[in-house]
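Please study the protein below:
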Amino acid sequence: MGVLRMVTVEPVRLLFTMALAMHSLASRDLVHRKVCLSRLNETMCGKGEGSPDLAGNTSYSRAIQEDVASFCFYLDICANLLGILVSSVFGSASDRFGRRGLLLLPSLGLILGSVSCLMQSYFLLLPLYYMFFSSALTGLFGFYQASYIATMSCICDITDHSDRSFRLGVMESMGLIGGPIGMVLVSPLLHTDYYAVVFFIVILSQVAVLAYVHYWLEETVDVRAFQDNSRDSGGVTSGQSPQSICSVVGWSLRRTLMIYVIWRTENRRQLLLINQTVGVLSSVGSSGEIDLTRLYTSKPPLSWAPFTLLAYLSVKDAVRGMILAVGMPLLYVHISHWSIRSDMILAMITLLSSSASLVLRAFASNTLMMMLVPLVGCLSGFPNTLISSIKCKLVDSNEFGAVFACTMLIQTICHLSGRALFQLLYTATLPIWPRLPFLVMGILLVTFLSIITYMWCLSGHLVKKDKMDARQQLINSYGGGEEETELSSSPKTTK
C-alpha cells in the first residue's frame, strides 16, 4: 500500500504514451491504405503495409512506401510544431496557474484527433490532406510535449533532491513501457483492418485519463498564493479580457525563452546551459534512429517485414523501460545521499551503453546481431532521466514548467532537423556504407562524456550545499522545528 500511495501522474504518462503509439501506428496504416487506394484496387490494399499481394509487386510497394514515409513525416512536423508552440505557452503558465489543466490538454487533443481519424477510416476516398486536420488537432492541444512537461513538472513539485532522480526514472520508464504496450495491442487489430476498434480504444483510454486527473489527482502548485501575490503587486493575472489573455501569453513565452539565460547563483546558469547542450546533442543524435532503422532493415541484407521491425522496436523500448523501472529504485535504496554529482556519474556510465548499442547497430549484418542491440543498450533509458534530474536541481521550484517547456522547444526543433539531416546522410552514404549514420550517432554520444565530466568538475561547490540542505531536512523531519534549526546554526554565527 505504501507504493500505491506514491503513485501520482505515472498512470497518466503510461496511458498517454500507450494511446499515442496506437494512434500513430493506426494513422500510418490508414495513410498507407489511402495512398494505396489512390494507385491500386481495394483487393491489393486490403492488408495495409503487410499485404502479401502488395509485397509481391516490388515497384508499386516501394513507390507507395516512399509516399507514405514522406507524408507521415509532414504530418509529424505539423503535430510537433503546433504542439511545441502551444506547450511553450502553457508549460510556463502551469508554474503559476496549475498543472491539472496542462495534464488534460494532450488527452483532449488525442481524443479529437482519433475521432477525426475514425471518420476518415469510414470514408477512405476522402482526400489524403484531410489527415492534416487530425494531426493539427493533436498539435493544438499540446501533443506529447504538453504531457511530458506536465508529468515531469508534477513529479518535480512533489519531490526534493534526495528522491527526485528515482521518481523521474520511474516516470520515464512509464513512457518507455507504454509505447510497446500500445504496439502490441494495435498489431493484431491493424492486421485485420479494425481501424475503428483501435481509435475507439485510444478514445476510451484518454477518457479514463481525464477522469483520473479530474477526480483523483490534486493540484501540486499553490495557485491561490500566486493570485494573491499578483493582485498585490499588480503583476500577471488570469483575467478573461483579451488584453489580460495576451499579457499572460506574452509573459509565458518570454519566461520560457529566457529561462536558461537569467542570472543564477553558484554557477548554476553555466551548468544549466551545459546541461541543455548535452540535451540538444542527444536529441540530434537520436532523432533519426527510428527512421534510419526502418530504412536499413527494409533492405538487404536484413529485408525485415514491417511486423518484424515493429517487434524489434517494441522489445528495445520495453527492455529500456523495465531496466529503468527496476534499476532506479535499487540505486535509490543503496545510495545514502543522492546528489547532483551522483546523477552526473551515473549518466557518464550509462552513456556508454547507449553508444555501444549504436556502434553495434552500425556493424550488424544479420538479424541475430540486431536483436543483441536491445541487450547492449539496456541502460540507454538512464541518461535522459538523469539529465532531467540535474536540470530540476539547478532551477527554483517555481520554474519547473518553464524549464521543461524551453527544453521541449529546443529539442523538438533539433529532433526534426536531425531527422532530415540523418536521412540525407543515409541517402548520401547508401552507395558506400548505409550503416555509417549509426556510427556517427554512437561517436556523438561518446563526446557527451567529456561534457558531463566538465560539468562534474564545475559542480563541486554544490555538494556541500546539498549536504547542508539534506541535514536541515533531516533535522526538520524529526520535529525539531525552528528552535532546533537555530541551535544547529548557532555555532556558525558565533565564529
Q: What stands out?
A: The chain has a mean pLDDT of 83. The CA atoms of residues 361 and 370 lie 6 Å apart.
